[in-house]
Amino acid sequence: MKFINRERELGALEKFWQENEAQLIVIYGKRRIGKTELIKQFIKGKPHVYFLAQRINDKENLRLLGEAIGEFYSDDILRRTGFQEWKWFFEYAKNHIKDKIVLVFDEFPYLAEANKGISSIFQAGWNENIKNIPVFLILCGSSIGMMEDEVLSQKAPLFGRRTGQIFLKPFSFSNTCKFYPGLSFERCLEFFAIAGGNPSYLKRFSPNLSLDRNMVEHILQPEAFLYDEVEFILCEELREPRNYFAILKAIALGKNKFGEIVNETGLAKGILHKYLFILEDLRLIQKEVPVTEKNPLKSRKGLYKLQDQFIKFWFRYVLPNKRNIEEGTTNYVLNKIKSDFPAVVADNYEALCQEIIKSHEDKLFPLEKIGRWWDRNEEIDLIAFNEEEKKILFGEAKWSNKPVGVDIYEDLKRKSQLVDWNKDKRTENFCLFSKSGFTENLLKLAKKEKIALFQKDRFIEP
After folding, report:
1. What domains, with CATH codes, occur in the chain?
2. Region at 196 (left for phi over 0; alpha for psi -120 to 50; beta for the rest)
3. Which whole number is the average pLDDT over 160-164?
4. pTM for the whole thing?
């Protein structure tokens, strides 16, 4: 499969490569998000040594590193014996690196597990041996927490040594669709509602198979590639996964308010606060507040939601049905998913509308901020605004087989008056998103009142 997107990240790496000074670049992000593929694309055609750390002891990793370095420099003795100490590696690098080279340490957290002082060792090696030679050092890792603790935080020994960092995020929906050229918008959205923008998951889904078949082959069997994926990820990141599992499950089932999570998990408020902060730091959850809140950090309207789409799917459908999956009653599980999944797809479409509207910003006005809004029992799917120009956009999304009519627009106008943002000083704009198009009456009204209309992700000229 061809390499998709990541132009910005590759461009940043190439820019660092052009610098004359030594570089220490940190690349991190969730497991299977494409970090190694990004690195492989970057090092093509460049002198490089790629070292993948293993979950073994320090001595064995040093031996394997010696093999890799010895292979590059045709050093048979080093290839056979390896390095005995880390300082030998840094001294060897200082003495042998004369021309620019990329040195990649993939899964750096595994080195930190085996040697608690590895960050200090690399700090000393950088300062004393390699910061003045033409080396392009990449430290890469999937454990977000450990990468931040060992490399990025102010308390980390390597803090201040890095010359750049890349946090690799999941693909956007538009880039996700590039995995499946020619596939319908609906099917791409269904795949995205399961796998999110994770390239490793997406490439396993076949556009030639039904959605049911894809779920069975890749998720809903004990032997399937993604069956135990979430447990593996969480156990790798978290020391006490049991309580975190309970929190993530509660949020996946729609318990989004702090009090609801307390009631669902039975955890004390003080402990829950601590766990939620950790999950936010690991980018597993995020606290969302209405987009018009002036002090988001102090808002009492915050709702917690899962950031990773597949983790959301797994907690919603796999974990509660593990017994049935283990027993082989897959059809029972599939029927449960099929009865509920359309609502998940609809939620994803509502969230996707923020991406769609950003791609059509030229038809509206410069969008300074974009998000959802809610208050008590009222909710607006999309609000975007520009504080300086005092312009605001209200949007509603409907993923159903029924065309959107005038009643949806009128209700959106009603709800817009509940939003306390620059009242009496603002210019109001409206947009509607629909799976199945719009009624004739709405199309006529849209032309008259200049309502922006989108069918799926396509802008409809009024």
Report:
1. 7-168 (3.40.50.300), 175-346 (1.10.10.10), 360-460 (3.40.1350)
2. left
3. 88
4. 0.89
